C-alpha cells in the first residue's frame, strides 16, 4: 500500500475517530464527565489561527491524563453554561473550588454552573497585572528618552554639530538601557545574568521610581511564593 493511501485509510477508517461519540460536535465542544473533581481550573487558550477555546481542567491531574473536563470553542458565557449543564447537577455540586483569571465572563459562568464553588483568582494573572504596571513605567521613560534623543539630534543638525548621546559604562544609551531591561524587570534579582545585574544597577540609579516599582512587584510575588495562608500574605504585604 502506498504511504499516501495508508495515511488516508488510517485517517478515515482505522483510527476510529468518526465513530467517537463526540465526533459530531468536536469542533464546538468536548466533555469528559469522568474527569470532574472538586478543584478545577477555568482558562482560555489560543489554538490554531489564534482561535480561543475555553478549557475546564481537574487540578488533581496536574495537566496529565484525566485533566481535561471540558473544552469549548469561544468564551461566551451562554455557551460555557450550556456545555457545563450537560454534567449532572449532583456532580457539579461537588465542585468546591474553581481557579480562574480575572474575567467577568468566566466568573459569571462559574457562578451559574457551579454555585457552591469558591472562586479563586489565578495568581499568575494577578502577578501579570503587577508586572505590566512596572513595564508601563519602563515604556513611559523609554518614550521620553527617544523623544529627548530625537530632539538632541535635531538640535545638533541645526547647529551643525555632531550628536553624541549619553553612553553608560555598559556601552548602552539611555533608550537602549530601557529597551534591554524588559526581561530583567520580571525576574527576581537572584536569576539575573551578569550583564543584567550591571544593567539593573545603572537603570535603577537613573530611574529610582522604576526600582521602587520593581521592588514592590517582587515583594508581591514573594507573598504568593512564601506565604501559607491569606492572613500571613496580607501581613507580609503590609509590613
Notes on the protein architecture:
This protein is α/β, with parallel strands linked by helices and 239 residues long. The protein folds into two domains: 3-121, Nucleotidyltransferase, domain 5 (2-Layer Sandwich), CATH 3.30.420; 124-238, no CATH class. The protein has nine helices and six strands. The model has no long low-confidence stretch (mean pLDDT 89). The protein has a six-stranded mixed sheet with strand order 1-4-3-2-5-6. Helix 5 packs antiparallel against helix 8 (208-226), helix 7 packs across helix 8 and helix 8 (208-226) runs antiparallel to helix 9 (230-238).
Topology:
Layout: H1 3-14, E1 29-31, E2 39-46, E3 52-58, E4 68-73, H2 77-84, H3 89-92, E5 97-100, H4 104-113, E6 118-121, H5 123-159, H6 174-179, H7 194-206, H8 208-226, H9 230-238
Parallel strand pairs: 2-5, 5-6
Antiparallel strand pairs: 1-4, 2-3, 3-4
Helix pairs in contact: 2-4, 5-8, 7-8, 8-9
How would you state the average pLDDT, rounded? Answer: 89
Q: Return residue spans where pLDDT drops below 50 for at least 5 consecutive residues.
A: none
Rg over CA atoms, rounded to whole Å, is 26 Å
Largest sheet: 6 strands, mixed
Integer count of domains? 2
Distance between the termini: 73 Å
